Amino acid sequence: MSGFVAELTPEIDPSEVGLDADRLSRIDRHFQRYVEDGRLAGWSAVVTRGGKIAHVGMHGQRDAEADLPVQADTLWRIYSMTKPITSVAVMMLVEEGLIELNDPVSRYIPAFGAGRVYIKGSAMKPVTVPITEPMRVWHLLTHTSGLTYGFHHTHPTDAIYRAHGYEWGVPKGVDLAGACDAWAGMPLAFQPSAEWNYSVSTDVLGRVVEVASGQSLDEFFAQRILEPLGMTDTSFSVSEQNVERLAALYSPNPQTGRFIRNKAMGDAVLTPPTCLSGGGGLVSTAADYHRFTQMLLNGGELDGTRLLGSRTVDYMTQNHLPGGADLEEFGRPLFAESPLLGTGFGLGFSVVIDAAEGKVLSSPGEFAWGGAASTAFWVDPAEELTALFFTQLLPSSTHPIRSQLRTLVYQAVVD
To answer: What does the alpha-carbon distance between residue 88 and residue 291 come to, in Å, rounded to a whole number?
Structure first.
């Protein structure tokens, strides 16, 4: 697909695909209020049905201080929306026989061969026991590995990560191989497969991809996923010539709730990273990520380019939590990029298993994820529908953007 340039304009009258244009406009009116009262600087939203773009909305500024508007080619830090791309990379290698889901992670990263699990004590003096079963590739894909994130602040293992410099990233100068070895040397929060905990698991998967493929993660992404899909604006950093397209990163002012610039974290994407984060490192555009979601909706293929077999996509997007449990039941009650009630987890995606339990309009089988700066997407195979939302407000738990977007999209479905 060389020479492909992604467009981001409506392709069809919404009524032709069972959507009401007036009702879709509620999305724009609702999120315009977020800009008007200072909760967001700007945003972009895309809704498709039947493989056609039915609605594109955008409002506000990509950079409020420079008075630059949100545009179709605005570059957004997608953070954890990198995870589904890494998960697709893993499953491409599974399909080629280079990885098996039951493989011990230590086959690719030997440091994970002698893991230990926290059972009691403080972060300074943890009491640990050996792992009772190997951490496997599927544990990483499902976030049941026992790994964690330093930014959780809920468990002594989180504090151990922070003490080693792993909170919202890695220590300066550490590459992906070094980070994985460091995580392997820290205690797990629980035995693999015992619980669900949002974690650096997908970063470790990025290293598995490197070892199994013999390519660096950025090379694998570019050659095997991004270029074939025509995702020409997705990468681990922003080049000097594209800096003006980059949206500024914001966080809420604790006193007023209005957005304030988060320059320290926002500037990180201006230089190529030492550590290629498959868990949160990519910058992308709405048009690019739309291409990725259409590939998933189409069962692994887009415009004649097939990344995955359709059965593989089906397998990835079913609930893999033991006994059909949801995240509320099996997960730790802490931050995640999705609702917990009525939502399970597949191989790289949250999966709706009981829409009534979640109390937000949705469909069983809908799969999704989001990013730390309040970006989000979902794919609904039953309704042949996808939705994407891009903004740059960190953390994503600041406002109920995702649940509101789901309601606003589904109320516009009228067939």
So the answer is: 14
